[in-house]
Amino acid sequence: MNEKFRFYSDRNFLYRYRVQKDDYRETLANAVIPNPLTPFKDELFSSWIARLSAKFDCQVSTFLNIYFPFLRDKRLTARDMDLVLDSELAEIFSQKTRISKTIIYNTGLKSYESYLSETIRDNSRNNLISTVKIKGSYSKSYGLKYCPYCLRENNYFKKQWRLLFVNVCEKHNCYLLDRCPSCNNPITITKRKKGIKFFNCPFCGFEFHKAENEKVSSQSKAVENQKKMLEILNNGYFIFENKPYYSIFYFWTVKKLAKLIYLDEYRRNDILQTEIELHNYPLKSKKEIKSRFIEDFLEVKEGISLFTAIYDILKDRESFDKFVKDNNLSFYILNTFKEGSDYNPPYWYIDLISNYQVGINNQIVTEEMIRNAVKWMQKNGIRVSLRNLAKWTGIDFCSNKKAKVLKKIVEDNKT
Length: 415
Ligand SMILES: [Zn+2]
Ligand SMILES: [Zn+2]
Prior knowledge:
The protein is mostly helical. Helices cover 41% and strands 4% of the residues. It is built from 18 helices and 6 strands. The strands form 3 sheets. The chain has a two-stranded antiparallel ribbon. A two-stranded antiparallel sheet has the order 3-4. Strand 1 (134-135) and strand 2 (138-139) form a beta hairpin. Helix 1 crosses helix 2 (22-30). The structure holds zinc ion (ZN) (2 copies).
């Protein structure tokens, strides 16, 4: 490489060059980033970019402006970049760093697509992904959580810390923190006070890894149940009554139950009450809840009790049945869906609640359901066939009026 273009990691180098040499900007925009850090296997995109920027001693916005000026229109630092990272962007970052596109794509939340839900959107809120509300490059809500002990071991933020049902550290058995312990601001990692080696709060400079946090009581099932939920997410399927189904069904139902329990106050459940007592943190009452979108405001200790209970309710038909009976849930309540997030109930759920109504049949299977199922099978390397469709989704539309049309979708995509 020409001497003129070598990268020096000493301070102000980039700035000095930018002022003095107009063409240097262009060179950097076309350059491959020298010795980039490789993301950790479970690292979050913004965490990787923040570490990379820190390595070159600049803020994330400066780093992106210098090396990726052509991405300016994307306004990455003004948005939730972990949601924005799609396959096209991953390709760009891959070309600039020579790190595999798959590794980079996997750091983004879109990589949960077809595992957590059908689609992950960057222009709206997403089910089970905590909201960060970026304003002026700062996070305005408590959507990013972390474990200080994990940071002490390895200085990076994990992708799973953005999930609504991840509230404890499985490794250190402690609660996650969702704000700066020193000034209480939400965690922002794409800005930092400079001159400090570790991730720190841009408002007060507190180094996040120095925090201490409470251990979760050993009587709690939180760690165990969270682990199992994450396993379902990572595997892409769950087992119910000895049959595998795809994980999207599961997480759709998790969200539905979260709304029933948290927003509509159907809270009669032993595990839920035990957990609330153990963490000594009651769930907010209906009156205190101002929005219907839990992802905007659910607190760590509420989330623990809520999702520990939900895992238990969904573990088999018997416990689901008990939950329905204890709370006197009618078929009507279980079967009411509003436009938006919980629209389009999965077949598996319809089947689960069908016990509470006589005479339900599979006329409900729609073309969209089949298309989504086919997409999922393709993505997971499962051969597309009617038999596999029935096996993995529980969808069996033999008696369906539109059976011909539905079967054709599968036939057309057969592998
Ligand atoms: Zn930890
Ligand atoms: Zn702070």
